[in-house]
């Protein structure tokens, strides 16, 4: 199914590679003008934008560390100037390093590092896009969570804790922003190999897939499709939801 996002402006944080790249591509296929955000690797972001443009889509890039308040304000102003309009769709996707640490190895700063990416950055970005969305009386805020919240992976509590916070954040924001026509949802990928997983042993992938009810690995496009749906007018009555896209690997909240 093809969703129609013509005339919409979408900002995808960490859109240069991994899931963000495919989310950006999918939103552009649906007709949105997509702004591909990145922090460090300009070339990767430009490649994503060029690949979208060469398929007939509309895309531009914006550099900015989404964990930094000033940088976020600046990048949103830059996007709005480039696009000549305010942001309709915000996808909170970017991630930093995800260290696996036992409790003994973990420090409070290891937890804070993850909270900064998965709670602080979405807060800064949401605050920056809200004036435009409220003025229009509509908007979409879509955050990329993770199935680790249901799985409770050991030696990963810094990441699991921060991803868990996104459920409460999504529900509270949905209640607060519903009266303004703004929907807020969480999309939880299963393990979906992207560039940074190139070293993962194929045996690990096969073992994971064996435990998934659909008996296969997901693809980045599965996440892109879910995001495109939630961004579309077809999803106008869906808000405050936590949606797993993981072949049925987890059930529940
Ligand atoms: N892939 C999976 O299996 C999986 C599973 C569950 C959940 N997720 C979630 O899905 C999302 C995407 O994950 P991924 O695997 O696609 O990650 P990824 O391939 O590592 O990509 C991360 C992206 O974030 C950007 N980024 C890093 N620091 C940034 C900063 N300070 N400001 C702005 N952008 C920044 C990177 O750009 P630069 O390289 O330029 O810094 C890059 O574009 C994350 O929220 C992750 O937790 C992924």
Description of the structure:
This is 3-oxoacyl-ACP reductase. One of its GO terms (molecular function) is oxidoreductase activity. One of its GO terms (biological process) is bile acid metabolic process. With 253 residues, the protein is of the alpha/beta class. The protein has one domain (9-245): NAD(P)-binding Rossmann-like Domain (Rossmann fold). 45% of the residues lie in helices and 15% in strands. It has eight helices and seven strands, in the order E-H-E-H-E-H-E-H-E-H-H-E-H-H-E. A seven-stranded parallel beta sheet has the order 3-2-1-4-5-6-7, sandwiched between helices. Strand 4 (89-92), helix 4 (108-136) and strand 5 (139-144) form a beta-alpha-beta unit. The radius of gyration is 17 Å and the shape is globular. The model has no long low-confidence stretch (mean pLDDT 97). Bound molecules: NADP nicotinamide-adenine-dinucleotide phosphate (NAP).
């Amino acid at each position: 199914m093809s969703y129609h996002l013509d005339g919409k402006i979408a900002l995808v944080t960490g859109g240069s590679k991994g899931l963000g790249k495919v989310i950006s591509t999918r939103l552009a296929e649906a007709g949105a003008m997509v702004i591909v955000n990145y922090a460090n690797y300009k070339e990767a972001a430009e490649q994503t934008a060029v690949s979208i443009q060469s398929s007939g889509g509309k895309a531009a890039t914006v550099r900015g560390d989404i964990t930094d308040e000033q940088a976020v304000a600046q990048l949103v102003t830059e996007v709005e100037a480039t696009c000549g309009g305010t942001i309709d769709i915000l996808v909170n996707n970017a991630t930093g390093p995800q260290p696996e640490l036992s409790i003994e190895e973990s420090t409070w700063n290891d937890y804070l590092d993850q909270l900064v990416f998965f709670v602080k950055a979405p807060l800064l970005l949401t605050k920056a896009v809200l004036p435009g969305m409220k003025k229009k009386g509509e908007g979409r805020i879509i955050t990329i969570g993770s199935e680790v919240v249901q799985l409770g992976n050991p030696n990963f509590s810094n990441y699991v804790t921060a991803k868990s916070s996104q459920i409460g954040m999504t529900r509270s924001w949905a209640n607060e922003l519903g009266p303004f026509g703004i929907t807020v949802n969480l999309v939880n990928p299963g393990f979906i190999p992207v560039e940074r997983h190139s070293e993962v042993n194929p045996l690990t992938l096969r073992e994971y897939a064996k435990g998934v009810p659909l008996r296969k690995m997901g693809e980045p496009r599965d996440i892109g499709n879910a995001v495109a749906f939630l961004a579309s007018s077809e999803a106008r009555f869906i808000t405050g939801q936590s949606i797993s896209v993981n072949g049925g690997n987890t059930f529940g909240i």
